[in-house]
Structure to design on (240 residues):
């Protein structure tokens, strides 16, 4: 498992190659890249600034990557999350999952992204029209993360 | 214990971290929030709506009823918006 937080960009192809090089057992790799949009709600934005909780952010992502490894037959997981000021078109986050067959890699990548959105301690601030506003959490993101919980399971644990 | 604040909680309080020594009657995260809110205008502003405040003890998410005894580091922040 590889988890990195960094201000600098990442190279998707290089990260996939690092995960699969020399492996004969991997038959599927899923990558998800989150990118800074140039507009929110029809209004142009100048940049996003991502704040994070150093120490906890890495630990929380690693906990969920470990949970993904328990739930699915994964042969590799890489999560890279950038922080700092990012402009439209720049990469924000990368999730790479590898498995023998595609179902496990697809499901694990979606699970990781749903949890990153709602449980990893990052906060986005958007710059537009000379103002800076904190992005509000979306209830739809909470609902997407919640559906991975088995019935009766405490989401805060 | 050390308190950390992030995003608009940090901005409203006007600092990123501080050392505090809450009175003995403050036993849970929820009680700590109520106690902090009484420390001044900036804290009252930050904690005006406790339902939107998230907390972590020693880098693990916790609920308001979590006990704070033995905690080294407690963080308060808004709902997360990463990814």
């Amino acid at each position: 498992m590889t988890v990195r937080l960094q201000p600098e960009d990442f190279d998707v192809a290089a990260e996939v190659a690092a995960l699969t090089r020399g492996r004969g057992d991997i038959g599927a790799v899923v990558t998800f890249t989150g990118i800074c949009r140039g507009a929110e709600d029809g209004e142009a934005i100048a940049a996003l600034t991502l704040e994070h909780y150093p120490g906890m952010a890495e630990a929380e992502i690693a906990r969920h990557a470990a949970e993904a490894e328990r739930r699915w037959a994964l042969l590799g997981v890489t999560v890279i999350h950038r922080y700092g000021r990012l402009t439209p078109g720049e990469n924000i986050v990368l999730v790479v999952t590898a498995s023998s067959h595609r179902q496990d890699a697809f499901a694990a990548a979606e699970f990781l992204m749903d949890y990153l959105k709602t449980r990893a301690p990052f906060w986005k601030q958007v710059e537009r029209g000379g103002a800076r506003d904190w992005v509000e959490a979306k209830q739809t993101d909470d609902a997407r993360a919640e559906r991975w919980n088995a019935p009766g399971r405490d989401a805060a644990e | 214990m050390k308190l950390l604040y992030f995003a608009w909680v940090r901005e409203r309080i006007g600092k990123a971290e501080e050392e505090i020594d809450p009175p003995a009657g403050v036993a849970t995260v929820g009680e700590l929030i109520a106690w902090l809110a009484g420390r001044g205008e900036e804290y009252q502003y930050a904690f005006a709506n406790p339902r939107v405040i998230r907390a972590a003890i020693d880098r693990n998410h916790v609920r308001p009823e979590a006990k704070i005894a033995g905690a080294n580091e407690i963080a308060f922040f808004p709902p997360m918006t990463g990814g």
